[in-house]
Amino acid sequence: MSTGFFGNIGPVKYEGPDSDNELAFRHYNPDEIVLGKRMEDHLRFAVCYWHNFVWPGNDPFGGQTFERPWFGETMDLARLKADVAFEMFDILGAPFYTFHDHDVRPEGETYSESVKRLNEIADHFQGKMEAGGPKLLWGTANLFSNRRYMAGAATNPDPDVFAYAAATVKACMDVTQRLGGQNYVLWGGREGYETLLNTDMGRELDQLGRFLSMVVDYKHKIGFEGAILVEPKPQEPTKHQYDFDVATVYGFLKRYGLENEVKVNIEQGHAILAGHSFEHELALAGALGILGSIDVNRNDYQSGWDTDQFPNNVPEVALAYYQILAHGGFTTGGTNFDAKLRRQSLDPVDLIAAHIGGMDVCARGLKAAAKMIEDGALSNPLDERYAGWNQPENKAMLKGERSLEDIAARVERENLDPEPRSGRQERLENIVNRYV
């Protein structure tokens, strides 16, 4: 039964690039075959709960601009919110959705009441999913909004906060498994510090390592088959985040012996805040074997914070999907729209149109990336650039079959005096531009 919030908007259909219908896909055709697989199965789109159904449109200098009929702290309103959410998922034909516990139920007076409410909403979700609704890409716990977490969750100096956070994650993992979630994400919104004057970094890192180890242990205990994901975030709100970027997270995982147990959920906006490009973070995660899933959004490059706007830059998205495809594509992961409307975009139809635009941009990027891979447009020049390493003597250097003295002797014996070769960057950029 329709909630009426979206009026008479029906399911969004693919109408092709020449369509002038604002509420139709021009490029996202779920059944189109790309590199031998359906486009929907490559992209694995997910719609997030928090920005679409929780955020009231405020910013640091202004209050609420959105007026939604489900805003409030009752279970009846939480169920209405779920009804509207699943109606939107259906309109978009989204195969997945994502949520925090705090998004879907009002917090109770006690931990037990909060868990009870979460399970009640999970029952509501389960009925909708069994009736043909989308699958759960991942669940997570909000360990940053409540004032108890002002000094962090796992890294908090108060062991009672650590314990409360651990119990909350257990409850959320239980619900994620019950709903068939394909991943579980930990986003350390306040796992960092404001000043070293009151911070013992070594202690806090050990706390965080123990916390994540317990999560992994519990995953195996309950037989959760999905991936455990950590989302790198460099700053905002905490000045020094312990999960700054992919490289930092990998170093952390290695230190605590978790590099084979945990992967990363990479957000484009966070990559930019860390001083990287999105494709850099994806390429590094792929090279390290920890690429799990992505949050796709964009920042306003004139602003110094994470603005969470819907993607609209096809070349950026194409280079991102190129890295994803080059490293084998998604397994349990997918493309989560961690993006929100602008605070002046008040109408229900804006929610639908924003996702249509983002899905079309991703589809165009995917197709461009796939074509580059099919044609060897970037891989052939890359193979040529490193071709010298295929020579037996050069392979021997990397295999540890030559010592430093051996190599020095060869350089002297063969009178090596290598000349630099062009990196051809501009020519490669021109190649990319032919595809996008």
From TrEMBL:
Superkingdom as given in the UniProt entry: Bacteria
GO terms, biological process: D-xylose metabolic process
Matches recorded under Gene3D superfamilies: Divalent-metal-dependent TIM barrel enzymes (3.20.20.150)
Gene Ontology, cellular component aspect: cytoplasm
Active site positions: H100, D103
Any one GO MF annotation of this record: magnesium ion binding
Sequence positions that bind Mg(2+) 2: E267, H270, D306, D308
Keyword Magnesium: yes
Keywords: Carbohydrate metabolism, Cytoplasm, Isomerase, Magnesium, Metal-binding, Xylose metabolism
Cofactor descriptive note: Binds 2 magnesium ions per subunit.
Binding residue positions for Mg(2+) 1: E231, E267, D295, D338
Enzyme's top EC category: isomerase
Chemical reaction(s) catalysed: alpha-D-xylose = alpha-D-xylulofuranose
Keyword Magnesium: yes
Family: Belongs to the xylose isomerase family.
Quaternary state and interactors: Homotetramer.
The protein, known as: Xylose isomerase
